[in-house]
Automatic annotation (TrEMBL):
Keywords: Aminotransferase, Pyridoxal phosphate, Transferase. Its cofactor is pyridoxal 5'-phosphate. This is Aminotransferase class I/II-fold pyridoxal phosphate-dependent enzyme. GO terms for biological process: methionine biosynthetic process; transsulfuration. Signal peptide: none annotated. The modification N6-(pyridoxal phosphate)lysine is found at K222. One of its GO terms (molecular function) is pyridoxal phosphate binding. Transmembrane segments: none annotated. It holds the Pfam family Cys_Met_Meta_PP. GO terms for cellular component: cytoplasm. Belongs to the trans-sulfuration enzymes family.
Length: 406
């Protein structure tokens, strides 16, 4: 596709992936069509054979999916070069949800007897996938503390059935980080496929492909969409043949496709990614500073505070500290519930990455399905509050938190 030269991240957010509409609509219309027609049997054959670019069936592909996919691929590869010294080329596959994209990742790469190495404090759904869905298929997760590089290397050396390294950084809800550069180097040394959940950071703050990751995954439901209007997930891979082959096969046959309307919403949302992230991060820093000095607050977990244990790693691999934080109230569970109930502007909701500030209580919401002893192992205490700081005027966020903490 012909694209104008784009030198800045926001220009890529706005323009990448867009193709001139044949009827000159400004935005790509929503292609609410399950199937596509051919001029002739010959043309149908060429499309099925992949000899002619075109659309066939919306479980496979759609102009709306493609626009969002090309935008996200361009953002994840922004400014990076491949082994050949040319701009890095990666391919994205959009899915119905983040969990759909993760299912494709694991099923395209792992078979019975294979293992995936990962760490504590993963997203609740990913953790459940590892614990409940993959084991009956003969695929096991080996969970180690991957902040310890020696332990990680030893675990990989001890078990040749480990085929993939799966990282999530920053991780939910304590914002613990792992070292992308060091861990991906270990994965490469041991010929493991490496994949990174980049949902909390967004491609504006962190680019795992810069360290040689094989896959980057997002729940597009969060910062990429940015407005909470649609569920979605994307798998971005640097091995184009793998993306066009096994990944596409699994995506198509599991029926994990997105839909034209949600993809349209995602495409519009991505256009403001940089502008939103700048404001999100600015507001978050102010909120963290406020909470950190508050007498009712025992502990604030925010990557922009120098006392966060992963401040140094985050400063190296992220552009800013992000919009996510969590904090512990001195009064524990009761104080947490009271605080949540008193909020007036900030919303009581799970999910994250929307324009509105969303506040949740992991022990009773996102991590409710995780057994208590595991929760405690991941530092998810009963009084922990998670905040996805929005883009409202920061004074209003601070005033709301202040009155709720009284
Ligand atoms: C939301 C989320 C997911 C799952 O994505 P869905 O779109 O809800 O299926 C995975 N990882 C992280 C970090 C998330 O926040």
């Amino acid at each position: 596709m012909k694209q104008p030269p784009l030198s800045g991240f926001s220009s890529v957010c706005v323009h990448a992936g867009h193709e001139q509409d044949p009827r000159y609509a400004h935005l790509t219309p929503i292609y609410a069509s399950s199937t596509y027609v051919y001029d002739s049997a010959e043309q149908g054959m060429r499309r099925f054979a992949g000899e002619e670019d075109g659309y066939i069936y919306t479980r496979w592909d759609s102009p709306n999916f493609r626009e969002a996919e090309e935008k996200i691929a361009a953002l994840e590869a922004f400014g990076l070069t491949g082994a050949d010294g040319k701009p890095l080329l990666v391919k994205a596959k959009l899915h119905a949800s983040g969990m759909g994209a993760l299912s494709t990742l694991f099923l395209a790469h792992l078979k019975s007897g294979d293992k995936v190495i990962s760490h504590y404090s993963l997203y609740g759904g990913t953790e459940e996938l590892f614990r409940k869905i993959l084991p009956p298929l003969g695929i096991e997760a080996v969970i180690v503390d991957m902040r310890d590089l020696e332990k990680t290397t030893a675990a990989i050396k001890a078990d040749p059935s480990i085929k993939m390294m799966y990282l999530e950084t920053p991780a939910n809800p304590t914002l613990r980080c792992v070292d992308l550069e060091a861990l991906i180097a270990i994965a490469q040394e041991h010929r493991l496929v490496s994949a990174v959940d980049n949902t909390f950071a967004s491609p504006y703050l962190q680019q795992p492909f810069a360290y040689g990751a094989d896959y980057v995954f997002h729940s597009t439901t969060k910062f990429l969409n940015g407005h909470g209007t649609a569920i979605g997930g994307v798998l971005v891979g640097r091995d184009i043949e793998m993306m066009k082959g096994p990944v596409e096969k699994v995506h198509r046959l599991l029926g994990a496709n997105s839909n034209p309307f949600d993809s349209f919403l995602l495409t519009q949302g991505i256009k403001t990614l940089e502008v939103r992230m700048e404001r999100h991060c600015h507001n978050a820093m102010e909120v963290a500073g406020f909470l950190d000095g508050h007498p009712a607050v025992a502990q604030v977990n925010y990557l922009g505070l120098t006392d966060h244990p992963d401040f140094a790693i985050a400063s190296r691999q992220m552009k800013h500290a992000g919009a996510m934080m969590s904090f512990e109230l001195k009064g524990g569970l009761e104080a947490g519930k009271r605080f949540i109930d008193r909020l007036q502007m900030c919303l009581r909701a799970v999910s994250l990455g929307t324009c509105d500030t969303l506040i949740c209580h992991p022990a009773s919401m996102t991590h409710y399905s995780v057994p208590k002893e595991l929760r405690e192992k991941y530092d998810i205490t009963d009084g922990l509050i998670r905040v996805s700081v929005g883009i409202e005027s920061v004074t209003d966020i601070l005033n709301d938190l202040d009155q709720a903490l009284q």
